[in-house]
Amino acid sequence: MAKLLVKAREFGDESVIDVAQRTGISRSTLHRLAAGTKQPSLATLWTLRDAYGVRLDTLVYDDPRTMRSTPVRLARAATAHLEATTIHPLHDPGADH
Predict the structure, then answer these.
(1) What is the mean pLDDT of each run of 10 residues along the chain (97 residues)?
(2) Residue 20 near residue 26 (C-beta atoms within 8 A)
(3) Which of 37, 33, 35 is nearest to 48 (CA)?
(4) Residue 2 falls in which region: left (phi positive, over 0), alpha (psi -120 to 50) or beta
(5) What DSSP string runs through the chain?
(6) How far is CA 36 from CA 14, 41, 76, in A?
(7) What Rg, from alpha-carbon coordinates, does the chain have?
(8) Which pTM does this prediction carry?
(9) What are the tens digits of pLDDT across the range 19-37?
């Protein structure tokens, strides 16, 4: 989470409120993630990655608290699988074509 906080500041997000507004993640969840009392869900990781352009492996491996509670091989395998997965955008019927 440390690198994420640096990246958030680069985007002008100085507070948890700023990060919550940009990402839609609740302030309480962000506080718990920063404190290390909550592990991020996959959806939260994707949201943070998309909002700040941070690699998933940076979000997973940068925080020593995450390393302690997450088996490294499992986390690496999940990250590799996600990086290789193609995500197709949902069709927005209201969008101009």
Answers:
(1) 80 91 93 86 92 84 51 55 56 57
(2) yes
(3) 33
(4) alpha
(5) -HHHHHHHHHTT--SHHHHHHHH---HHHHHHHHHTSSPPPHHHHHHHHHHHT--HHHHHHS-HHHHHHS-HHHHHHHHHHHHH---PPPP-TTS--
(6) 19, 13, 19
(7) 15
(8) 0.59
(9) 999 999 999 999 888 888 8
Phi first, then psi: give them for residue 11, nearest 5 degrees: -85, 0
Which tokens sit at 75?
């986390």
Residue 91 to residue 85: CA distance in whole angstroms = 19
Tokens standing for residue 34: 């920063």
> Integer distance in angstroms from the first to the last C-alpha of the chain?
38
Q: Which single residue is written with the structure tokens 């507004």?
A: 21
Sole residue written with tokens 């920063």 = 34
Structure tokens, 86: 């193609």
Could you tell me if 7 and 52 are in contact, meaning their C-beta atoms sit under 8 angstroms apart?
A: yes
